[in-house]
Known about the structure:
Blueprint lengths: L1 E2 L4 E3 L4 E5 L6 E7 L9 E7 L7 E6 L12 E11 L5 E9 L2 E9 L5 E7 L10 E10 L5 E14 L4
Antiparallel strand pairs: 1-4, 2-3, 3-6, 4-5, 5-12, 6-11, 7-10, 7-12, 8-9, 8-11
Amino acid sequence: GVASAPRKAVLDRQVSLFHDCPHSEIAVRQVRNREGRDLAPFSLVVEVFSFEGSFLSVSVELPEDAVVNLTREHLVRVETLIECEKPSSVFARLNIQHGPNMEQVLRSLDPTEASNAVDFDLAHLPLNERRIEKIWLDLIFEMPEMNRIVVRDLTFCRFHRADL
């Protein structure tokens, strides 16, 4: 775990926490999942006390295999299981780096439900499919002060669009 998390806290090679709060009253730790519905062995717990910044996000970089043969004919689905002590707006932003350019697609998660699924349709993005290098997801938490956020599970799926 990390107490008084810095503006960029690298938690492992795929997960980082970012914020712009001048006084970091943010703690991050990993805890073991113990409920029967849990598929992931561990959860990520973010505890926020006073927060005067404009953003708090958890960034999850997908493995290199996720970009192999990725095209605009794909849909990317993210299924989340996020529990908040008090209801908070959460956004999922898919980022795709292709060459020097980056495309972003933002989706809102339902704050009244712990379990959400959002789809990112790549059909309308101006992607250079031959130059896709990296793909990652940002979970952005709006007004996170005095809240305990538990990311219990994230599942990513890639679907090829049917040829009609």
